[in-house]
Amino acid sequence: MPWLPADFTHPTTVPVAEDRHLRPIRATDVDLDYPLVMGARERLWAVYGEAWGWPPATMTHEEDRVDLARHEREANEHKSFNYALFNTDETELFGCVYVDPPQKQGGDAEISWWTVDDTDLDTFVPTWIAKAWPFTNPCHVGRDLTWTEWIALPDR
């Protein structure tokens, strides 16, 4: 069974604040993404490392570009979504929101996010997901339950 309705159109630009918006990340965003990710690598590893093995300490610029190209392709195919948080003119990237099909039992989507300052999205993301996406029981991983609790859930 598909995780999204066949006629669902994912948002392409999402206003977050007067000077910030979300949009699906692209491989061409690597020059903004790579330094941000590697600069916050220890904090990101503490969040995603156990579950995703990301970001590896040895990740190169090219490996990040390949990963972003995968995210871009998966969004175009409606397999999963990685939205980047940008300033108005897209010269700064502040973090990402992941909207993924459920790997574990208990929800119809798995949502997680990180930013330079997580409070930027802590209220916004759950509201946006509820209004713009067709989920009835999204799991906000890292918020509703810890990553360790998520890993322990039975697989689908």
Describe this protein with a few key phrases:
single chain, 156 residues, alpha+beta, Aminopeptidase, 6-stranded mixed β-sheet, 6 strands, 22% strand, Acyl_CoA_acyltransferase, N-acetyltransferase
Q: Could you please describe the fold and organization of this structure?
A:
The protein is α+β, with helices and mostly antiparallel strands and about 160 residues long. It has a single domain, classed as Gcn5-related N-acetyltransferase (GNAT) (Aminopeptidase). Helices cover about 35% and strands about 20% of the residues. The protein is built from 6 helices and 6 strands. The chain has helices at about 30-40, 40-50, 60-75, 120, 125-130, 145-150; strands at about 15, 20-25, 80-85, 95-100, 110-115, 140. A 6-stranded mixed beta sheet has the order 1-2-3-4-5-6, with helices on both faces. The radius of gyration is 15 Å and the shape is globular.
